[in-house]
Automatic annotation (TrEMBL):
Record carries keyword Cytoplasm: no
Keywords: Hydrolase, Metal-binding, Nucleotide metabolism, Zinc
Species: Coccomyxa subellipsoidea
Cofactor(s) named in the record: Zn(2+)
Alphabetical list of HAMAP family matching this protein: Adenine_deaminase
Domain of life: Eukaryota
Residues in Adenosine deaminase domain copies: 11-328
Protein name: Adenosine deaminase domain-containing protein
Coiled-coil ranges (or none): none
Length: 328
């Protein structure tokens, strides 16, 4: 249709993408064989992997996502993982991407911070030259490991500051409110990092308030549960705090039902800065254009809304104003 055509040709920024969540089953097996760790992945075949990607909650996904990471060991592994994502992003007309990585997932397995970061940044640099994609890296703290481990990770990252644009907060949400990480985010701000946090994915609207008030984030990742709190929605609209929404992720993890999707459209029309992203596309069945297309089809979005979403992706990005201007 015309809408799908429009989605495929519009340049866009992707702002919520876990690089570990782009590990396609084929690459998972290839790296497992190369690194002699086939025994570390709980599957015998590609079919078995795909059958396992049937989730009922955030945690049921995270368990498999962390298990898959066991195959990522060398700098070259991280390079190939990131490069594969960038080629797919280029095919979806992504011209700027801000990717998350989870250093603690790798350091806990004995893979140094520098190994993961260097593989990722080498691919990003190559993409700038060969695919015309600009990028930033955002390192995320795993909230289930608590604030002390997050603080140690931030300290470990300081020597690599020039390669890291911002800090984020991800993993299991319920029981790990943003306020626990206030001190870590305070230091990160002092060190010049931008800040984002997953909030209101499975957790309540209250966690979104905490991310705004305690962590002083520049963007909220997901944030769909904000819909349950009218005064929060009013605040986010007025402050133009962006939400990086991931529709296929929310559907796969059973985060929301149809009613919430419709409210999202109302908020978009009211001027909330909503953006569309793919989260963990290898696990949720689609890269960024598939996420736009899913929303367009389920909501019957008009061309004007598609334009608005594409524009919001640049407004919400950490690009300099000068570069941003070129796209909006
Ligand atoms: N890590 C990777 N994907 C995530 C998500 N959707 N929510 C929380 N943590 C994550
Ligand atoms: Zn996410």
């Amino acid at each position: 249709s015309d809408i799908l055509q429009l989605i495929s040709v519009l340049p866009k920024a992707e702002l919520h993408l876990h690089i570990e969540g782009t590990l396609e089953p084929e690459l998972m097996f290839e790296l497992a064989a190369r690194n002699n760790v086939l025994d570390k992945i709980p599957y015998e075949s590609l079919e078995e992997v795909r059958a396992a990607y049937n989730f009922h909650s955030l945690q049921s996904f995270l368990d498999l996502y962390y298990a898959g990471c066991a195959v990522l060991i060398t700098e070259q592994d991280f390079y190939e993982l990131t490069w594969a994502y960038l080629e797919r992003a280029a095919a979806d007309k992504v011209v700027h991407t801000e990717i998350f990585f989870d250093p603690q997932t790798h350091s806990a397995r004995g893979v140094p911070f520098a190994t993961a970061l260097q593989g990722i940044t080498r691919a990003l640099k190559n993409a700038e030259a060969k695919l015309g994609i600009s990028s930033h890296v955002i390192m995320c703290f795993l909230r289930h490991l608590g604030p002390e481990s997050a603080m140690a990770t931030l300290q470990e990252a300081l020597p690599f500051k020039e390669h890291i644009k911002g800090v984020g907060l991800d993993s299991s949400e319920l029981g790990f409110p943003p306020s626990l990480f206030q001190e870590v985010f305070q230091l990160a701000a002092k060190e010049g990092f931008k800040a984002v946090a997953h909030a209101g994915e499975e957790g309540p609207a209250e966690y979104v308030w905490e991310a705004v008030q305690h962590l002083k984030v520049d963007r909220i990742d997901h944030g769909v549960k904000s819909i349950e709190d009218a005064s929060l929605c009013a605040h986010l609209s007025k402050a133009q705090t962006p939400l990086t929404v991931c529709p296929l992720s929310n559907v796969k993890l059973k985060v929301y039902d149809g009613e919430l999707v419709e409210k999202l459209q109302v908020l978009l029309k009211q001027g909330m800065c909503i953006t569309i992203n793919s989260d963990d596309p290898a696990y949720f069945g689609g890269y960024v254009n598939a996420n736009y297309a899913f929303l367009a089809e389920s909501l019957g979005l008009d061309a004007e809304s598609i334009y608005q979403l594409h524009k919001n992706s640049f407004v919400a990005s950490f690009l300099s104003d000068e570069v941003r201007e070129k796209y909006i």
